[in-house]
Amino acid sequence: MIRFARIFFAKPATILVFAFFIAIVLIALAAPLLFVRGPLTIVGMPLLPPGAPGFLAGSDVLGRDMAGALAYGARISLLVGAASTIGAVGIGVLLGAVAGYYGGLVDELLMRVTEFFQIIPSFVLLMVLVAFLQPSLGSTVIGIALISWPQVARVVRGEFLSLKGREFVQAARTLGMRDSRIILTQILPNALPPILVVGSMMVGSAILTESALSFLGLGDPNLLSWGSMIGGARSAMWVAWWTSVLPGLAIMATVLSLNFIGDRLNDALNPRGQR
Amino acid sequence: MLVSIQGLTAALPPVADRPLAIDDVSLEIAANEIVCIVGESGSGKSMMAHAVMGLLPRGVAVTGGRILFDGADLLQESPEAMRKRRGRDIAMIFQDPMAALNPVAAIGRQVTEQIRAHRAISEREARQQAVDLLSQMGLNEAELLLSAYPHQLSGGQRQRVMIAMALSLSPRLLIADEPTTALDVTTQAQILKLIKKIQAERQMSVLFITHDFGVVADMADRVAVMRLGQVLENGAVAQILERPTHSYTRALIAAVPKGTCAPLDSAEGKPLVEIRGLSKTFRRGGLFSSRGAVTAVDDVSLTLNRGETLGIVGESGSGKSTLARCVIRLLEPDSGAVLFDGADIAKMKSSRLRPLRRRIQMVFQDNHSSLNPRQRIGDIITAGPRAYGENKAAVLARAADILRLVGLNSESLDRFPHEFSGGQRQRIGLARALMLRPDVLIADEPVSALDVTVQAQVLKLLDDVRRKMNLAMLFITHDMRVAAEVCHRVVVMRNGKVVESGPTHTLFSAPASDYTKSLLAAIPGRGRL
Predict the structure, then answer these.
(1) Which residues of A touch B432 (CB under 8 A)?
(2) Cα-only R_g, chain B
(3) Tell me, what's the pLDDT at B261?
(4) What DSSP assignment string belongs to A135-174?
């Protein structure tokens, strides 16, 4: 654990990026306390520039507080990112583990299913799924999880393929351990590092995907997210830059920091990484 | 003197387990002489080779001494001058020729590239030279070989190609770093002979790095014994082999399995495992294609008696490991029967097999990969009994006893595998197998990854345990010398078939088949140790 922390924070920038990410999480959690009126209430004149009295980040086309909207938007973005990643990792680990461990026909079948998802333009599939399930927070999460899991399944299958040939797994079989127990206690803990890395990167891409969906108006109509803020500000882009640039910056900074953290996790968890 | 190493000292990075990789080593290599550096893993013998080549790994730095090559100090030379020397004056061959050859380039290109990097000659001339060289290395149809890729050659052929490349510029010093360790024993004998012949023809010097005193006895003019970065003893081969002065040298020589059959207690037990007509074929290819089939085990029948050690000997690809894995049902045989205590387990369903599994246990070859790196020893060795529903607290008490039996203390329970040495990890693997109180122990090359002194200890331990627990042991090995020391009976396998079997002393003193004879003749250092 100490070794892990030492490598993880080896680059000084990591501390900054990590602190930034924690700050976004805290703002998201504290949004209802910081902005008691909620993000959808009209509280002033429309299109006030950032720094106007009481409007730290200005107001949008309808006169809603941009700062509050950004904080509430962070809740949606992070929630969708985390929940859909958990879903995708869950499906991916399950199918990847079964395919990699059992191999043969099971593997062939599961991999064909995986490829089926991989060859369909995933964003189009997502739009169809969300439209079909009715736009809502839940359908967004389910949709993103459904288009993201093949990547996890591939990684997990690869790890299982190489780990199941290792002698400690064979030893576990000769001891009479059941397959489920071998998968859970012997192989999975050794396959965790790449899963964690893929997972942390996936949170970032899920946030991007959610933003794109909301931008197109396919997000939950009752919730404000960074993507829907940009979508709503399309018409005012040239007169009030902050209405689209600020949520855009929020998306960019969050995704970048997640990718950076994923990179550092990769270095810290990779046993062949520099010590 | 062609090479004169004087007081060479090289420091390891601060995280290493000792400060110096090479500690004040002086060594001389005369022209037309083979000098062997012999030592166990971590002795610094490979570091010596790399220091002379000027190719020490990153983090290891020479801190003192001189390496004089024909009078010039190699340590003072510029990187560019050293680059020119490599290949032209000093060449090197490595342990694993597959890793040393470029897998995506044809042999011809790799050999000619080497020649043309140093000499301004045309592609055609270089190819002609390559053909000549490969023929000299005893490779037939050298023309054809030029267009082959490394994976299409056998291990012995690859090492011959490596030697051809090393000799292409007629270096005055050839450094061979464990060049035969990855090869089968008969191939090893051929390659050793080749190196010796070429050395004599070309009157060059050879620095030969090895861990095997048998190889030393066959190859060396002079020997340096290294331990922990220091040369303990240095002298003519006859003197070191016959009158070693240092106790460590004596221990090393004593630990070499001699291939003489030690008197074992008589083992006249009842048959416990009977293998009848067992066959296993591997088919490659996926759902829609099949590309060839390899019959790894071909109609093998044998019997393992209670209380005896049965050796299965063979070179790589002989099917001995596949046979073992069929017996323990890590693989399902295609046909034939494995009668264990009367019940045929060859095709038994896994639910019925499960209660029998605990009675057949296995010790693996690779002590790195045979222990789960993320579990503590306590979890690893209690995993078996826990899989059968015993509770951990009760099992832990027994685990401490078993650990003591294999020579480890109970504090080991809370530690992780990487905190142990190779020999200790092998003991842990044995403890894991013994926890289930098996009747049959399958040992798949249990000592081939270990240093000789550790090897001797583990072999003794296996024999003690077999006796104490009245185990039947199936002992898989490629090393005839090891088989002779621990086995009551030996089965020789080749290409999936049993070539010959019989009591160990009969098989070693009067082998019936030519193949067994050739295996025995190939044992390095035979008759000299």
Answers:
(1) 171, 175
(2) 25
(3) 62
(4) SSHHHHHHHHHHHHHHHHHHHHHHHHHHHHTSHHHHHHHH
When the pLDDT of each residue in chain A is averaged and rounded to a whole number, the result is: 88
Q: Which residues of A157-193 are buried (b: 16+ CB within 10 A; e: fewer)?
A: bebbeebbebbbbbbbbbbbbeeeebbebbbbebbeb
The mean per-residue pLDDT over the stretch B357-371 comes to: 91
| pLDDT beyond 60 at A272 | no
The encoded tokens of residue A96 equal: 């990847």
Interface touch A176/B370, C-beta < 8 Å:
no
- Indicate the DSSP class of residue A40: S
Residues of A in contact with B388 (CB under 8 A): 176
Nearest CA in chain A to B433: A175
CB-based contact B361 A189, cutoff 8 Å: no
Q: What is the DSSP string of B320-385?
A: HHHHHHHHTTSS--SEEEEEETTEE-SS--HHHHHHHHTTEEEE-S-TTTTS-TTS-HHHHHHHHH
Q: Can you tell me the mean pLDDT for A39-44?
A: 82
Record: contact B357-A190, CB cut-off 8 A: no
In this complex, the residue of A170, A178, A185 whose CB is nearest that of residue B330 is: A170
Percent of chain B with pLDDT over 90: 59
What are the residues facing B73 on neighbouring strands? B68
Spatial distance between the Cα atoms of B29 and B52, rounded to a whole number of angstroms: 12
Predicted confidence (pLDDT) per residue in B197-228, tens digit? 999 999 999 999 999 999 999 999 999 999 99
Q: What are phi and psi of B228, to 5 degrees?
A: 50, 40
B369 touches A at CB < 8 Å? yes
Q: Answer yes or no: do A105 and B287 touch at CB < 8 A.
A: yes
DSSP state of A182: I
B327, B363, B372: best to mutate for the A interface, most A CBs within 10 A: B372
- B452-469 vs B422-434: helix axis angle to the nearest 10? 10
In chain B the first and final C-alpha atoms are separated, in Å, by: 29
Question: Tell me, what's the pLDDT at A171?
Answer: 92
Is A28 in contact with A78 (CB distance < 8 Å)?
Answer: yes
**Long-range contacts (CB closer than 8 Å, 24 or more residues apart) made by A10-15:** A10/A267, A11/A264, A13/A260, A14/A260, A14/A261, A14/A264
Chain B residue closest in CA terms to A180 = B387
**Does residue A275 register a pLDDT over 50?**
no
Residues of chain B with Cβ-Cβ distance to A275 below 8 Å are 15
Q: Which two tokens stand for residue B96?
A: 């694993």
% residues pLDDT > 70 (chain A): 97
ipTM: 0.79
| Candidates B365, B370, B374; nearest CB to A189 | B374
- Chain B contact probe: residue of A175, A178, A195, A196 with most B CBs at under 10 A: A175
| Chain B residues closer than 8 Å to A174 by CB | 328, 330, 357, 360-362
CB interface of B with A, residues 320-359, below 8 Å: 328, 330, 354-355, 357-358
Do the Cβ atoms of A207 and A80 come closer than 8 Å? yes
Q: Count of CB atoms within 10 A of residue B80's CB?
A: 8
- What digits encode the pLDDT tens for the residues B323-339? 999 999 999 999 999 99
pLDDT of A124 above 70: yes
- Given CB atoms, is A168 within the 8 Å cutoff of chain B? yes
**Partner-chain contact B358 A171, CB within 8 Å:** no
pTM for this model (two decimals): 0.83
Of A176, A190, A275, the CB nearest to B357: A176
Chain A stretch 102-121, residues whose beta carbon is closer than 8 A to a beta carbon of chain B: 105, 108
Q: What pLDDT does residue A34 have?
A: 86
Mean pLDDT of the A81-103 span = 95
**Dist. CA A127–CA B109, nearest whole Å:** 54
